[in-house]
Write a structure and sequence with these properties.
heterodimer; A: 212 residues; mainly alpha; 8 helices; extended; B: 2 domains; six-stranded parallel beta sheet
Chain lengths: 212, 294
């Protein structure tokens, strides 16, 4: 039995069946199929949520290893592991809406999350100043477009130069949107192709089997 | 200083100067607001009109997905939006997209059970907007696309208790079936389950959805406005400030607009200076280091 479950063909059959069941409800109104499909999707959701245990194990193992080796930044690794477990313990003991758990959210997660996010502004401004050069006609066009959009984004610009806002909107709603659409469609088509290749057994690595 | 040196300085501006100037331009107007005028853009007007159309017969699916990182960019819009929802009397089902959102929600709505007051507690009291009767909180139920899809199909097969483990039976949640039971979806997100909600809630059930988007997500979500899947989009801090202006309740968004404006102009100035330096010195020095755009 174990041998059977480990076989690549078994995985492919299960994946194929899951695909047809979940997709089938969009085409056929069969109550039993609907219920089974809903349960299947729910199971995936629960399994996904449980993957956090794997992440916890991996992070703990990695951080403790780096701490033992006194690698660069090891105190941060230790701090990370300690806070993860204290927070988890508080959540389990007092509940996720308790004052104790909330204190960790507001005292540690809020400031660190905010800092990481806001520091990006400095890097982006520095990158703009140091890297954006009109080295070619294409780069010059990109720069001019960028400056127009940036100027249009600034709220004050609409007061003294409303045409810059209009020009910025035109650039983002035409050229930028076209590029965004191409990207979205490419990703979607790529995902469909990947799905078909997995179901037909041509991308075995994606389901944990060596050799493509 | 020779002309070459000026160009060289412009081309190789010390990043510490850039950081310092940005820091000062954010700090100064925050401490002492200049009150620079702003203009209100059409996307925000459209967004506001959807909030104004809400009334007591409506039920809103409120997806809180910002976590703390995007909260700072969108908080003005979140506060202004839910103030309007409370005023309208529409019922609201709250769902979280990250584990941090329970704390973010508590900042805004407080926790009436524990006597914790939030930013909107005065409005909750003023309009007698009560937990259980007017809004319920499902908790962290949007961890991935599978759960988002499952909720769209059948709410009760996925969630029967609220975020504190109390049964939802006996509340207005009993009357809700699936994504089609809602009059409006309001999502504030850095992109967690936004696309999944568009796919499974909007496309399958036709429920109107409005979005509060962080700056980097605006281009990727803009096509959904064009296709009608998103009815309106509040665009980053600026959109949030505009919403505060329209709602007539100034808050953190309008306060930040002075810094927002000045930093935008500073970045443009840096780009122009860098290019003057490039043509005056760097190009002649035949530096061959490639950059992000050339």
């Amino acid at each position: 039995m174990a041998q059977l479950l480990r076989r690549k063909e078994t995985s492919l059959i299960l994946i194929g069946l899951s695909f047809f069941i979940v997709t089938g409800v969009y085409f056929f109104d069969i109550p039993a199929l609907n219920n089974f499909s809903n349960n299947l999707v729910l199971m995936v959701s629960v399994l996904n949520a449980m993957s956090i245990l794997l992440a916890l194990y991996s992070q703990t193992r990695r951080s403790l290893l780096l701490t033992r080796q006194k690698a660069h930044g090891w105190p941060y690794q230790l701090y990370l592991v300690i806070t993860i477990y204290i927070m988890a313990a508080l959540g389990f003991i007092y509940g996720q809406s308790s004052q104790q758990f909330m204190w960790f959210q507001y005292a540690i997660l809020n400031p660190t999350g905010s800092v990481i996010y806001s520091v990006l502004a400095f890097y982006m401004a520095s990158a703009c100043a140091r890297a954006f050069r009109a080295r070619s006609p294409q780069a010059a066009m990109l720069l001019i477009s960028g400056i127009i959009v940036l100027m249009g984004q600034a709220p004050l610009t609409g007061v003294f130069a409303p045409f810059l806002g209009t020009a910025g909107t035109y650039l983002t709603s035409s050229f930028a949107m076209a590029a965004s659409r191409v990207f979205t469609m490419s990703v979607t088509v790529g995902a469909v192709v990947l799905g078909v290749r997995i179901i037909t057994g041509k991308e075995s690595a994606a389901i944990g089997f060596e050799g493509g | 200083m020779s002309q070459g040196n000026i160009f060289k300085t412009m081309a190789t501006l010390d990043r510490r100067i850039i950081y310092l100037l940005i820091f000062l331009l954010v700090l100064a107007p925050t401490l002492r607001p200049l009150g620079l005028p702003i203009t209100v853009t059409q996307p925000t007007v459209t967004y506001y009109s959807y909030l104004q159309d809400l009334d007591e017969s409506d039920v809103v699916w409120a997806a809180w997905e910002t976590g703390f990182s995007a909260w700072n960019e969108l908080k003005a819009g979140i506060i202004a939006t839910y103030r309007e929802v409370i005023k309208s009397g529409a019922k609201m089902v709250v769902a979280f997209g990250t584990t941090e959102d329970i704390a973010v929600f508590r900042l805004v709505f407080g926790d009436p059970d524990e006597g914790v007051r939030g930013i909107l507690t005065p409005e909750l009291e003023q309009y007698d907007y009560q937990y259980g009767r007017d809004y319920v909180v499902l908790g962290y139920v949007l961890p991935n696309e599978a759960s988002t899809s499952a909720l769209a199909v059948d709410l009760h097969s996925v969630v029967t208790n609220d975020y504190k483990g109390r049964p939802l039976a006996g509340t207005f949640y009993d009357d809700l079936v699936n994504a089609g039971s809602f009059s409006l979806i309001i999502d504030f997100s850095p992109g967690m389950q936004t696309n999944a909600m568009i796919r499974h809630w909007v496309m399958d059930y036709g429920t109107p959805m409005i979005e509060g988007a962080i700056g980097v997500n605006i281009p990727s979500l803009a096509p959904y406005i064009d296709t009608g899947h998103l009815k309106a989009m509040l665009q980053s801090t600026r959109g949030c400030a505009e919403l505060e202006y329209l709602a007539g309740v100034p808050g953190p968004g309008l306060t930040s607009m002075d810094a927002f404006t000045l930093v935008h102009y500073l970045v443009v100035l840096f780009i122009i200076m860098g290019n003057i330096g490039y043509f005056g010195w760097e190009k002649n020095a035949k530096q061959t280091t490639r950059t992000a755009v050339g």
